[in-house]
Amino acid sequence: MARIALDAMGGDHAPTATIAGALLALQELAPEHGIQLVGRPDVIRAELEAQLAGAAPAVRDAAAQRLTVVEAAEVIEMTDKPSVAIRGKPNSSMAVGLRLQAEGQSDAFVSAGNTGAQMAASTFILRLHAGLNRPAIATLFPSAREPVVVLDSGANVDCAAEELVQFARLGAVYAEDILGRSNPAVALLSVGEEPEKGNAAVKDAHQTLAAAGGLNFVGNVEGRDVPMGACDRGPVDVVVCDGFVGNVLLKFYESVPKLIFGLLAKSGVTKEQLSGALKNLDYAAHGGAPLLGLKGVSIICHGKSSPEAIKNGILVGLRAAQSRMSDHIGQRLASTAEGATR
Amino acid sequence: MARIALDAMGGDHAPTATIAGALLALQELAPEHGIQLVGRPDVIRAELEAQLAGAAPAVRDAAAQRLTVVEAAEVIEMTDKPSVAIRGKPNSSMAVGLRLQAEGQSDAFVSAGNTGAQMAASTFILRLHAGLNRPAIATLFPSAREPVVVLDSGANVDCAAEELVQFARLGAVYAEDILGRSNPAVALLSVGEEPEKGNAAVKDAHQTLAAAGGLNFVGNVEGRDVPMGACDRGPVDVVVCDGFVGNVLLKFYESVPKLIFGLLAKSGVTKEQLSGALKNLDYAAHGGAPLLGLKGVSIICHGKSSPEAIKNGILVGLRAAQSRMSDHIGQRLASTAEGATR
Q1: Closest CA of chain B from A283, distance in Å
Q2: What confidence score (pLDDT) does residue B340 get?
Q3: What is the pLDDT, as a whole number, of residue B132?
Q4: How much is the mean pLDDT over chain B?
Q5: Domains of chain A
Q6: Closest Cα to residue B260, out of A212, A274, A159, A52?
Q7: Is the pLDDT of residue B94 over 90?
């Protein structure tokens, strides 16, 4: 029997979405589990009543028996600073929901509210395990295989190697426990497979992870391996990165379906047209990336360039030369330096 | 009249792809422009002969008149270290092609070869403009609007704020000169729109860019804005990030079409089926990202969660509680600490 506390007030579409979600959950959860709706009782009850008005008797019964309302007078806004969650609004739905758990009256807390506040309040009220500096956020990325656990996906924007190593351990347990993966393959996100590739923190973390026991560390993976859910050496269950990279990647991925839909809508749905539309996602078609900052022009093409990509690289090189891009860069930098010394 | 030097030996499919690309380029370039094929003359000539065997007379004529072969005895392999390009193989096709330009005999250099070597050789032979620490790689990302310039996309894995500011200036000129964007909108990639969001380098860079003149700095953008080519404040032409982030993002994006094709193949091509397939790209459908490291369970849902996503968050919360994930994390960390002190 588990009691799940839901922050009924948290999220852009609360309480409508939160209450509706709770009702959906009730239908899927085994009947011994209950949900604690934490927030302003009047708001929660009014919303519940509205949503249950036309519901089937079974749903109404489940709600009556397995939903409880836990009063929390305050609400943390999406724009509140994280510290508000701890000091400013001690009776927020977040703080109350988390305290239920700290006091043994609840088994889990769920919120769609202010993430920074949730991190702060969770750390303050639930505390961290020994040996950790901060919590990490693990997100599931859809992949061609099974979903991949990516962490940290936003909690820690500046990470030392030590923290990346912590994430690896956290992620492995998550993959085992939540995803049911046995001996999950843990990889470090970098800019190349070789241990010596990466920024300073990643290179150090690689050394530690390679020497660490109790972890199925499969080495570095690159960005391309994440949507595949695998690298050359096999499937990947967990991808470790700092929270800045993870957050950028996550939000990027989020927005890709929107782009695809746009492309599909523009192109119709025949197979030929789809291929054309999706081809636009292939960055190699644009070809030729200039090395900027040189006194001259140097265009980098992809190692796997097709003739078409090589041709594009040449066209870019021409354009760079004709437009005198390099001169312009020199001028711009010079004028900046002048501005700075003025 | 411009002369473009092509590293005929560079790339996974050289010289076939490089020569074929050169021939394609000839047909698109105005007739006054020529291409210098740099590499082993015997290899280049044999390949040219083979490709021109069945070609139209116009192509053969163009090749005869506008292609020149420049001898370079050495070839840099994809696995060579960057330093090889400078010291180890002074007569590589890269070094020779770049020297042509340094000596005023060529206007641009194009290579699909070893990127690190190309960076090193380009910097050594062409040199950097004053005020720069290293070159940056700018890549075009396809977007729902026009392609977006993302830089650095791999040259500099550890960047100080100062370098990000340099990238902004480099990218703006690139967008103007190569893409024809007037007064290009330059944005800084971060984990939130607010100036105070980001890692240390990004926050510092934001301050400098906001105060800098001569740049249409539109503030921070998030990962989701990149595939859209725009943020809430309007179109974005240039996105600035460090080379670690840029490289991860680039390779990630590269692999997305592969994933989409896989999804399409599995689902067929009807509109309904496509919607279903693409829905799998929507990470919100997976719902509920746990905050890891806490003595307890705290699940983070997306601020824009649908009822379905909230429900999934609840299910994840349940699974976390039932599997005793948090205890397992504690145990794992404790055993690691023991291992370390042993």
Answers
A1: 6
A2: 47
A3: 81
A4: 85
A5: 3-126 (3.40.718.10), 138-250 (3.40.718.10), 282-342 (no CATH)
A6: A274
A7: yes
- Which token pair is A110? 């769920």
Mutate to test the interface with A, among B298, B315, B316, B323 (most CBs of A within 10 A): B298
State the pLDDT confidence band at B61, using cuts at 50, 70 and 90: very high
Residue B283 pLDDT exceeds 50: no
Distance between CA atoms of B311 and B292, rounded to whole angstroms?
20
**What does the pLDDT read at residue A285?**
47
Which one of B110, B247, B307 has the shortest CB-CB distance to A317? B110
| Residue B342's pLDDT band (cuts 50, 70, 90) | very low
Least CB–CB distance from A260: residue in B281, B310, B335? B281
Q: Which residues pair with B294 in a beta bridge?
A: A128
User: Measured between alpha carbons, how far is A202 from A152 in angstroms, rounded to an integer?
Assistant: 13
Q: What is the ipTM of this complex?
A: 0.80
CB within 8 Å: B280 and A323: no
Q: Give the closest-approach CA distance of B72 to chain A in angstroms.
A: 18
> Edge to edge, what strands does the sheet with A289-292 contain?
B67-71, B34-39, B3-7, B108-111, A298-300, A289-292, B136-141, B148-151, B238-240, B185-189, B216-221
Of the two residues B294 and B241, the one the predictor is more confident about is B241
Instruction: Give the bridge partners for A187, in sequence order.
Output: A219, A239
Tally of CA atoms within 13 A in the half-sphere of B236 that contains its CB: 33
Of A49, A46, A94, A104, the C-alpha closest to A70 is A94
* Chain A residues in contact with B285 (beta carbon < 8 A): 142
The answer to whether residues B244 and B259 touch, using CB atoms and an 8 Å cutoff, is no
C-alpha atoms less than 13 angstroms from C-alpha of B51 in its C-beta half-sphere: 20
Q: Kindly write down the DSSP assignment for every residue of B141-188, as one continuous string.
A: EP-SSS-EEEE-SSS-SS--HHHHHHHHHHHHHHHHHTT--SS-EEEE
- A127 to B178: CB separation less than 8 angstroms, yes or no: no
What local confidence, expressed as pLDDT, does residue B336 receive?
55
Q: What's the pLDDT at A135? A: 86
Partners of A322 on chain B (C-beta within 8 Å) are: 2
Q: Which residues of chain A have pLDDT under 70?
A: 261, 264-294, 300-305, 309, 316, 332-333, 335-342
| A141/B283 Cβ within 8 A | yes
pLDDT bin (cut points 50, 70, 90) of residue B85 is confident
- Of the candidates B147, B251, B307, the beta carbon closest to that of A24 is on B307
Residue of A nearest to B97 (CA): A298
pLDDT, position B316? 67
The residue in chain B having the minimum alpha-carbon distance to the alpha carbon of residue A103 is: B296
Window from A128-142, B32-46, B138-152, B313-327 with minimum mean pLDDT: B313-327
Residue B135: the pLDDT is 86
Q: Which residues of A touch B213 (CB under 8 A)?
A: 339
- Closest Cα in chain A, distance from residue B60 (Å): 17
Chain A partners of B300 at a C-beta cutoff of 8 Å?
111-112, 115, 118, 137
Residue among A212, A248, A303 minimizing CB distance to B245: A248
- The answer to whether A173 contacts B222, with C-beta atoms less than 8 Å apart, is no
Cβ B225 vs Cβ B236: under 8 Å: yes
User: Are the beta carbons of A283 and B140 separated by less than 8 Å?
Assistant: yes
